[in-house]
Amino acid sequence: MSSSNRETGKPLKLLVKRPLRSPSFARKLLAELEIPKRFSPEDILYLTPNKRRARSAMFEILSLYNGSAFRTPECFTLQTYAESLVNMESRKGLVDELDRRFILLKLLRGSKSKWFKEEHLGLLSTLYSELCRHHPEGWEKISSLATQEIFDLDTEKRLQEAVGLLEIYEKHLKDEALLDHERVLSEAESLIKKDRHKLLITEGYFEPWESEKKFLRELVKNIPEILVIIPDDAIAAEAEVFYTAQGLLAREGYSDSAPPKSNWNRYRSREDEVVAIARKICSLSLKGVRPEEINVVFPNLGAYRSLVERVFRRYNLNPRISMKPKLDSFPSARVVLDILLTVENKFRRRDIVALLLSPCFTKIPSSVKIWLDELSKDEGVIAGESSWIQWFLKEPPHKLKKHPQGAQIISDIKRFISGFIKRLEVFKRAMTADAFSARILETLEWLGWNAPHEIKRGLKDVFLKLSRIAELAQERELSPRFIRESLDTLMRRELDSGDEEEKTDAIRVMPLVESRWLETRYLFVGGLVEGEFPPYPKRDILLPERLKKPLSIPSSEHAFTNAEFELKRLENMASEAFFLSAPALEADRPLLTSFLLVERDETPHLEDPNLYSIQEELLFNPRGKYEKKQGVIFEDADSLNMLEERFGKNYPFRVTLLETYRACPYRYYLSSVLGFQASQEPSEEPEARFLGTVVHRVLEKLMRLLPASSAMEEKFLELLTAELDNLNINPFVKLWIEDWVRSRMDWFISEEEVRIDKGWMLDPEWLEKDLTLYFEDKGYTLKGRVDRVDWRDSSARVIDYKTGKEKGFKGKLERGESLQLPLYCQMIRLSAKANVSSFALYDFNESRVEEIADPEAFIRKAMQVASECISDIRRGLFSVPEKKPEACYFCEYSEMCS
Ligand code: SF4
What we know:
Elements: H1 4-8, E1 13-18, H2 25-32, H3 35-38, E2 44-47, H4 51-63, E3 74-76, H5 78-89, E4 93-95, H6 97-111, H7 121-134, H8 140-149, H9 153-175, E5 178-180, H10 184-189, E6 199-203, H11 210-222, E7 225-231, H12 237-245, E8 249-252, E9 261-267, H13 270-286, E10 294-297, H14 301-314, E11 318-321, H15 331-344, H16 349-356, H17 366-378, H18 385-390, H19 398-401, H20 406-425, H21 433-447, H22 453-472, H23 480-490, E12 506-510, E13 520-525, H24 545-548, H25 556-573, E14 574-583, E15 585-586, E16 589-590, H26 614-620, E17 625-627, E18 631-633, H27 637-646, E19 652-654, H28 655-663, H29 665-673, H30 686-705, H31 709-726, H32 731-742, H33 745-757, E20 761-775, E21 780-792, E22 795-802, H34 809-814, H35 820-831, E23 835-843, E24 848-852, H36 856-874, E25 877-879
Parallel strand pairs: 1-7, 1-8, 2-3, 2-6, 4-5, 6-7, 9-14, 10-12, 10-13, 11-12, 13-14, 19-21, 22-23
Antiparallel strand pairs: 15-16, 17-18, 18-25, 20-21, 21-22, 23-24
Helix pairs in contact: 6-7, 6-9, 8-9, 13-14, 15-23, 16-17, 17-20, 21-22, 22-23, 28-29, 28-36, 30-31, 30-32, 35-36
């Protein structure tokens, strides 16, 4: 590569396209352009969209000076650089996205809006960022465009009202001398002249929107020399056009490595997929590959996070997961919300008992832990502070009358409960944010709050943020409800562990967005299933898809095209090999492969006979009794300890797999303990598998749209056609599925009419909802996905759709063979504090609904069976049932046991 600008003596104004496979490209280019000779580090301003890259670039640039540099270059993302300019020069207070929501909340409360409520703050806030990014010049034209493009009056009015609210928001910011972070770039633009850097280097995937373009234009004008490095990739095409229009000379980079070897495999479940990745990493490290040479990407990292932590630990691998956990996912942080909810719910018995049984508190007397639940239930305490204080003043509870320590237990509970209620009563009153944080910390201290250091620090940050919000919203005293709702939102922030150091023995696991600037030898990209890569678009009630195009706001079509580019980019990123994978099933439901991969042939699966973990060794060579025909029963202490650890209280037992265990423990052992893959596809016919998946998907989308029953058939068929078109399947199978669904349409619509007549409401939150719940009293965690829950006030009706044959449902429930629905009922009841009045099976095959109106006995039975199964799994009992189970007829492991 020659540097013609240098040869002619002109200032450097160069745009270089960096090939995807070109390790240390930037470093080599900077050395070649003699940057260290011509500029001191402090002359250089380096900008990139990726925070991590900004950090590593600083060391990379410094390393060119061979230890002779005394100052550092300034390396930023565009946004942080703009913020640093504003912070230096402007007196305006910066408002981030969370602040924006709270200011909007205040404005919303004052506006008596017809359309918007607090739950729409997220939508309003997103609308604001979209408009700022794509229409920074002003939004006047939005309303008239809406009138032209939207043919439904409600959406049009809703959008107009939203824009009106956002204009009030902007005015509020102006009056209060505040600056929203979406407007930081425009503010910083006028401050660029103060920048004294001599060389601007930008590197990475800039996809500049209008304010960024204006800002970059000013930077390019102001800084004498410019070097732009963009990836040689279609996603960067817009940036290339932009920079060449600024007079930069474009030049191709060079690639010095061959394309990587590619592999594509599907695995039975997400767990099997992660196990396969972990095993492959182990085999690479046996060949001398170092952990930092391997990267793992999951587009939907949220679905894999805990799985990766668990499985990698089993293989002695140390994952460094980029996505930090959210504060509200920790029970020791959630207790703060539980305390406030207990007060808000008027001291309900079940709230108080749940709170006081929490393992997060160490100073609760054992008499309270042991007796409070039972005694208060017997005494009929339902809710209210006075009933808690009063019940011990009456006769001592009859259960304790003859108890040798009865008097002591009563006195302990009395003393503790009266102190506890008094402390909680304080939170009924409005108070300042500072008073609130002091009181809640005092209460937690009194209860012996046992939380890790980072949770304590995270919560203190949240309390500080609450004070700032109160200040921004100009609320001196905050109502209890406002405090609880604000904390609920604030606690959804990521928890900063403070551990930003790169560990050399760690394998980086990241979401897609972070993979854009990677240099790696081996790359694993997992979870490539439809709906997750590319993600399904969310329904937007303010900016429907048909409005996004005329407003030049990226639509789902844009997201799909980007995903295609992303895949190509990933494929070229590793220098040695890359591995694509996807799971085929989730619970009992097939997962479809991302449509970007359906036509790709799977790489032949090569058996790796090595055992990479102690667990694998113990499982494959059990030291206890092992009879092929009898199944496996573990007896030795090591194996039992290992099972106890693996299937401990945090292991999420899939409800459907517990059904498998109930039918045949040996089958569970082969599939879920050993993780053997089925030698063939699951035995159902492919048509049936597609049918189940398609019907579930279409019903989910349909129910989210909530169409009137008159429009339901048309909408159903429209969605079905779209879904089938996406599937790239045999046209005869398509026709068959269409006919099958059409013939059941009348029945389904009439069932929906009955639902509406009976007052059952749909809630989009409760469609295809993942459930995970730790049963503290039982010491295990259950997991599953419920198809749908209908609501009537706080009563729930839990629904499962079935498209296959389903005989003798009630009998299976009675015998504890069908666990799904009753266990989901119990999980929903406890987690959503709902009254589950019934559960129902929508049997599409037979066009009928089997409704269980009094589910109590079945729930009890299912809980008992689940407890027995889990206890037996932990005790290593995986025998073949004496009587041949029905499951044998479609069991993929039959060759291994008969
Ligand atoms: S073939 Fe039958 S007995 Fe053997 S594992 Fe499968 S279900 Fe169990």
